[in-house]
Amino acid sequence: MTAPAAPAKPPVVEFRNVTVRFGDFVALHDVSFRIEDVPNRGEFVTMLGPSGCGKSTVLNLIAGFQQPTSGEVLLHGVPVGGPDSDRGMIFQQYSSFPHLTVLGNVTFGMELDRSAGRLSAKGRHERAMDLIAQVGLSGHEGKYPHQLSGGQQQRVAIARSLAVEPRILLMDEPFSALDEPTRLEMQELVVGLWNRIQPTIFCVTHSITEAVYLGERVWIFCTRPGQIVYDIRDAIPQSPGLTPMAAQELPAFKQAAKVVGEAFRKVGDSKRAAPSR
Ligand code: ADP
Ligand code: MG
Question: Does residue 241 surpass a pLDDT of 90?
């Protein structure tokens, strides 16, 4: 006798014909996608597109900061409510609490969060110290944000977001304010954390090489109205354990960057060709 097949799980995130309008302006038009729920395996989606094409709006919808004008945003099959600790958001601007130390910042969310709230104070402290080590900040636990560099502050934001163990991590141009060497370090850090922890990640970036290094799937948006016009998966190589510099030397990486770059350019060309309003 064969066991009955387990029912298919609803997608981690599903957009069904999502449109967002601000007055007459259509920020997102009829966007649909599914991120399937694969056990112990989070997908990493990177998002590229011209400014104003609705990338942040997609993150805000998943975060629950914003509701669609029409269509549905579902998380695990349930329409999204307000923001919750199952989704973490990391912004370009460092969003640490200035009056709390590194350790205080990382434990703060856990103290508020219901699930992590079940941890004892000792358990929270241990998890925070572990994450601080994972983001390379051991020894800096007692410092305040103003005593840290931009890259270190962004590490604090990442540790704080991960402390409540979100299933979904939303990153909006997280490394845009960092210098190039720090950006590369942070890219490697995030890929390492993703491989170990396996959240589903959506990350907006302006860099083609960053999109290809971080993501397994690259979305390219167009404007007027905002839509996802390319969903590039097969061309994106995985480079586990490689630094961004080493990965970029691989022929498969160069080929992927070319495919993504060409798609991005087509989107830009069509935008320039479109009549301006
Ligand atoms: P992106 O992140 O791709 O640059 P956004 O998602 O932030 O774009 O915005 C998409 C479009 O919607 C932009 O043209 C922006 O000006 C507009 N928009 C975003 N939020 C609002 C708002 N609260 N009110 C009016 N227009 C908005
Ligand atoms: Mg944006």
Answer: no
pLDDT bucket at 272, cuts 50 / 70 / 90: low
Domain ranges of the chain: 96-165
Look up the pTM and report it: 0.91
For the CA of 31, the nearest ligand: 1
Strands 217-222 and 44-48: parallel
Where are any strands of DSSP class E within 23-86? 25-35, 44-48, 70-75, 78-79
Query: Which residues approach ligand 1 with their CB closer than 6 A?
Result: 22, 25, 27, 49, 51-57, 226
Place of tokens 């112990």: 40
CA of 262 to the centre of ligand 2 (A): 22
The bridge status of strand 25-35 relative to strand 13-22 is: antiparallel
Top mutation candidate among 18, 48, 57 for ligand 1, by most atoms within 8 Å of CB: 57
Query: 263 CA distance to ligand 2 centroid (A)?
Result: 19
Q: Which two tokens stand for residue 3?
A: 């066991």
pLDDT at 273 over 70: no
Per-residue pLDDT, 179 = 87
Average pLDDT in the 139-168 region? 92
Q: Could you list which residues have their CB under 5 Å from ion ligand 2?
A: 56
* Cα–Cα distance measured from residue 166 to residue 109, given in angstroms and rounded to the nearest whole number: 11
Atom of ligand 1 nearest to the CA of 51: 4
Output the pLDDT for position 224: 87
Q: Provide the pLDDT for residue 201.
A: 97
Residue carrying structure tokens 């370090």:
185
